[in-house]
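Q: I'm a student working through a structural biology exercise. My instructor gave each of us a protein and asked us to get a predicted structure, then write a short paragraph describing it. Mine is Carbohydrate binding family 9 domain-containing protein. I'm not confident about reading structure output yet, so if you can add a plain explanation after the tokens, that would really help. Here is the sequence I was given:
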Amino acid sequence: MHAQETAEPFPGLLVKKSAGPIVLDGQLEEAAWERAEVASEFVQNFPFDTSAAELPTEVRVTFTDEALYIAAKIYQPKEDYIVTSLRRDFEFGPSDVFAVNIDPFRDKINGFHFAVSPLNVQREGLIDNGNNISTDWDNKWYSAVGNHPEYWVVEMAIPFKTLRYKRQDADNRWRMNFTRISVRQNEQSSWGAVPRQFGVNNLAFAREVLWASPPPRPGLNVSLIPYAIGGINEDAEFNLPSETTWNAGGDAKVALTPSLNLDLTFNPDFSQVEVDRQLTNLSRFELFFPERRQFFLENEDLFGKFGFPSSRPFFSRRIGIARGTLRKIDNDGQEIEVDRTLNVPIQAGARISGKLDNNWRVGLLNMQTGPVQAADIAPANYAVGVLQRKVFDRSYVGGIFTNKINFRPDGNGGYEVDPAAANRAAGIEYNLFSKDNKWEAEAFYHRSFGQNEQADAQAAALFIGHYLRRWRIFAPTHYVGANHNPEIGFVPRTGFLSTSPGITHLIFPQKEWWARRVIAFGLEARTEFLFSKPDDFQLADRNLSGGAFVQLPGQSQVSLNYSNSYTFLFNPFDPTNTGGEELPANKGYHYQTWSLSFDSDVRKDFYYSAGVEHGTFFNADFTRVEIDANFRWQPVGVIALSAAYTDIALPSPYSSAKIWLVGPRAELSFSRSVFFSAFLQYNTQADNVNINTRLQWRFRPVSDLFLVYTDNYFSDQFWQQPKGKNRAIVLKATYWLNL
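A: Happy to help. First, here is the predicted structure for Carbohydrate binding family 9 domain-containing protein. I'll explain a few features afterward.
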């Protein structure tokens, strides 16, 4: 039975097929829009979630054989628009936006996000874990906006080839939610009501839409994305001559089924990817930087979200980097060897990922890297397999297996498998998300395997979180064995057992005078007790912290925090991480800090955040000052400056340090297809100054021309007589071709 034969009205939204083509012009003149049902009566998510939206929104949905069409009439005075820039994939928060979130499989966990600003700037992303949105995903879709004095109209066309879904012969239902953010009015609202303790784009609260007739059966869906690149590289640090390079490669996307995708890559290049935002590292462990490379991003949650952030069995950024030894001439004219992490070429790769049906997801990944002979780095092969099963309403059970094969020189100029260097890991975990999203839990067990298997090469954890309107309570417990070593994972610390319960309480003003000026008051307490295991469990780290904050209109906030910590050093450690004299091992240190921070009103053209922290750090006097200032040159872009100054004053004979991390940046849009960004990072801790500029011309949908220049200097000589490390300029063209 088709939906149109249903006698009773559908409580969600009925999607009817258009009898004719839709012209994207922001006018809504087609007959299909007159026939379409209207989704209105939006409900506030912020600042309150118990009232109707003050600004009305009307949404209509229809479709043709080629695309899903969504139109919205969004009431907002034209003079109130706030748009950060014309750049695609604009950031969340300081821009007005209308968005649609689509959950074709109704699992309330995974979906698609498409958003448009009043100036027709697009943003698209993938949703995982019900709420996380990755805007690094790119795909083809189209939009048009019509602006009027009191409202704006948006039309969106999303090709069915861009989506992943299953088609039934009858009763096709998806889940959708329509959301909007009006920055100047300080309002977030949605069609499906979302409680204020959750983000407005949370899929748990999407509503059902019913297709009056089934969506089309997707036909052949193959996309080729070739690239060509040319550039000049120069490495003065290691006395390498300038080198002119030319290269080519590309990706392919093949829909094996409407919901299962095969991605192929040959000789990929990621030179256009924005450089990482550097951080001052005062810890004893490796810092985490997110994946930004396009090939790894679709269904990235399926591979990369196993475990905790401090213990992942798979971390895609391990692919394409390796530690090697380079030789250079020092200041005394002597040849020395330097051990460092280097980029290595990825020769080819393949990935299958997606849905088998409404309950099963699968992921298979295999990547082959090549050698870097100048650094004595041999090839390696990376393989990952994942299987995930939905249980109950929004929960799932998953299993993962990783396998890294290392190669070695064979003595004849080639390479062979090194059987003594294989590394594998396997794991299983359960993730719980309650139907109302108030309960979240995770439990996992992982184990790594080497050629010479060792005991205690395992990790396990349990997390329980409870999120109410006024209370947020969470309690993670985590164990990582001393010999746990998944080489293609992220495990910065081993040999510990930790527990870190915390609680936050929100107080909402009731009186009207306060409610207009203060969104909420908050009190929070956090703890961490970490026991290390060199021989037996011993308290190694303890942190007790508490604070208060006030949320104000315009996403403004004031926070005051206190932290009391204890660390026992099992190994010598330099708290500055600058190569100075190390504190002795087998000794405990107590220290404490106070911090105050303020985030200003993002509705203003100039907005900023600032913070100061003062106290002690190990046996040092400690002060840190941070600021991030932004000027919105609407709608051209944002000019910003981030700066952090850290002063660690250690007693003699240890070395004190004054660490600067300064990063001015500009992100400018000359049109909706031409973008320019420039980013400088001055980092005295890493003794590096990085300059990265990128000019991008999107000459067709998802087809770009990039001109990228990057330069690195030693920071200790930068202001007197700059000494360069390396530099490169590349010109890269990519083209998206649908077959």
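A: Here are two points you could use in your paragraph. Residues 308 and 374 are 36 Å apart (CA to CA). The helical segments are 31-35, 300-304, 512-515. It's a good idea to check both against the output above yourself.
Q: Great, thank you!
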